[in-house]
Amino acid sequence: MLMKEILDQGRISLSFEFFPPKTPTGWERLFENIADLSPLAPSSVSVTYGAGGTTRSQTHELVLRIHKETGITVVPHQTCVAATRGDVTAILSEYEQIGIENVLALRGDPPQDDPDWTPPQDGFHHAIDLVKFIRERFPRFSIGVAGFPEGHPEMPNRLLEIDYLKQKVDAGADYIVTQLFFDNRDFYDFCERCRLAGITVPIIAGIMPLRTRQGMLRMAELAAGARFPAALLKRVAEAEHDEEVECIGTEWAIEQVKDLVAHQVSGIHFYTLNSATATCEIFSRLGLC
Ligand SMILES: Cc1cc2nc3c(=O)[nH]c(=O)nc-3n(C[C@H](O)[C@H](O)[C@H](O)COP(=O)(O)OP(=O)(O)OC[C@H]3O[C@@H](n4cnc5c(N)ncnc54)[C@H](O)[C@@H]3O)c2cc1C
């Protein structure tokens, strides 16, 4: 089903994100977790794609298996930072043939160790170029794009950033999925700034339950500078071990999701890290299934 149609149904869309595992054991565990998550009847699931095209075949395999084995609507992520138009055409043509009709169009991050890096010839500079290309070449696809409630680290000018997001939507995106956040006020403020700028498409909130202290440090580094509210940091600091951190993270996410549901958001996207535990707990505690 097209994401555009799912979001038009007027119900809160609930989606789960997975990444292609690196080992055979990881694949086995992921499909056990997908089996646990399937009864929650998500509106869709999404599969990440390595920025440099590193997971091209694994992303394709995971998209194909979920599509065939579960019948759940799958949204492949597609980054363009190291891709040519030929690469994107080949990948999306294969998806089109097997009945995939959605894509999350992203730029990805350029290699950090190469400050002079430029896109390949016949490549893309920003996600907007990918959106325009897909809209023209694959007009039936429903296209999602990324949004950053706390701001994207490369763009200090928050006014210009929303202008660029508006341009990305005007180029043909049907919806926005946000980077994870831990303070819902950041999300509501972002939505309001989008609406003020004339962005009217649905905005899906990205939620990632915290699991370990180490994970929190990694998130701070990688996830476009996730801001951890003091109240959350205080609880984590008082925890004696990671099991306690996981409970704190799940409780925090439950409160976030409860509040988002009360605000009747368009959708909630769970960054599952390939694990069913926290997401199942959130769904069962909030009666979402
Ligand atoms: C929901 C979600 C899923 C993600 N999935 C993946 C994934 O699967 N694989 C992966 O590698 N990464 C993924 N990312 C991370 C993402 O690729 C990076 O954060 C990347 O740096 C930004 O991608 P973008 O699509 O927002 O890029 P863009 O929209 O191109 O924006 C990148 C930067 O350029 C600025 N900008 C935009 N247009 C212009 C312009 N015309 N001129 C100057 N500056 C401009 C923007 O303000 C921003 O600072 C995901 C992020 C999110 C939120």
Walkthrough of the structure:
The model has no long low-confidence stretch (mean pLDDT 96). Helix content is 47%, strand content 15%. An eight-stranded parallel barrel has the order 1-2-3-4-5-6-7-8, surrounded by four helices. By secondary structure, the protein is an alpha/beta fold. It has helices at 3-8, 24-37, 56-70, 85-98, 127-137, 158-170, 184-196, 213-222, 230-238, 242-262, 277-286, and strands at residues 13-18, 44-47, 74-79, 102-106, 142-147, 175-180, 203-207, 267-271. It is built from eleven helices and eight strands. The protein has a single domain (3-286), classed as TIM Barrel, CATH 3.20.20. α5 runs parallel beside α6 (158-170) and α10 packs across α11 (277-286). Flavin-adenine dinucleotide (FAD) is lined by residues 48-51, 77, 79, 106-109, 126-128, 146, 152, 154-155, 161, 164, 168, 177, 179, 206, 224.
Q: Topology of this structure?
A:
Blueprint: H1 3-8, E1 13-18, H2 24-37, E2 44-47, H3 56-70, E3 74-79, H4 85-98, E4 102-106, H5 127-137, E5 142-147, H6 158-170, E6 175-180, H7 184-196, E7 203-207, H8 213-222, H9 230-238, H10 242-262, E8 267-271, H11 277-286
Parallel strand pairs: 1-2, 1-8, 2-3, 3-4, 4-5, 5-6, 6-7, 7-8
Helix pairs in contact: 5-6, 10-11
Bound molecules: flavin-adenine dinucleotide (FAD).
Flavin-adenine dinucleotide binds at residues 48-51, 77, 79, 106-109, 126-128, 146, 152, 154-155, 161, 164, 168, 177, 179, 206, 224.
